[in-house]
Write a structure and sequence with these properties.
There is one protein chain. It is built from five helices and six strands. It starts with a strand and ends in a 7-residue tail after the last strand. The mean pLDDT is 91. Helix 1 crosses helix 2. Strands 1, 2, 3, 4, 5 and 6 form a six-stranded mixed beta sheet that branches. Strand 1, helix 1 and strand 2 form a beta-alpha-beta unit. The protein is 36% helix and 21% strand.
């Protein structure tokens, strides 16, 4: 399973968020068909742009509880603004990791557009026995 985790400024619309997703996909030689869902922190889920972006590419929007996002605090990117607001270095990276589950890995650091960020995480191949 591959997840596109997103972070964005208040008022971002679906096109703004989709631009960040497309940039992240291109940076990792992926396309929209390669992701299974878009993930967002619960504190951002009320913004209409998140749902708009998911609808534009026909992927489910997964809402991750803020306390689970904070548990994925070991992100390669660090923004002091985001740390102050959300307690993680990168909201997009933390959301992607939390949504993809234990052992998930990032394709790389988040990608940015002027108003949104996106990180791609892949779930661990390990399966319980």
């Amino acid at each position: 399973m591959r997840i596109a985790g997103i972070g964005f400024r208040k008022g971002a619309d679906g096109a703004d968020i989709l631009a960040a997703i497309d940039r992240a996909l291109a940076e990792h030689a992926l396309d929209r068909a390669d992701i299974d869902a878009i993930a967002v922190a619960a504190s951002k889920a009320g913004e209409p742009g998140a749902g708009e972006a998911a609808a534009l590419i026909g992927k489910p929007l997964v809402v991750i509880a803020d306390h689970l996002v904070r548990m994925a605090s070991d992100t390669p990117t660090r923004s002091s603004r985001v740390v102050a607001l959300f307690g993680v270095g990168s909201l997009a990276e933390a959301v992607a990791l939390a949504a993809a589950g234990p052992g998930a890995t990032l394709a790389g650091p988040r990608s940015q557009s002027p108003i949104a960020t996106c990180a791609i995480a892949t779930a661990s191949e390990a399966r319980p026995t």
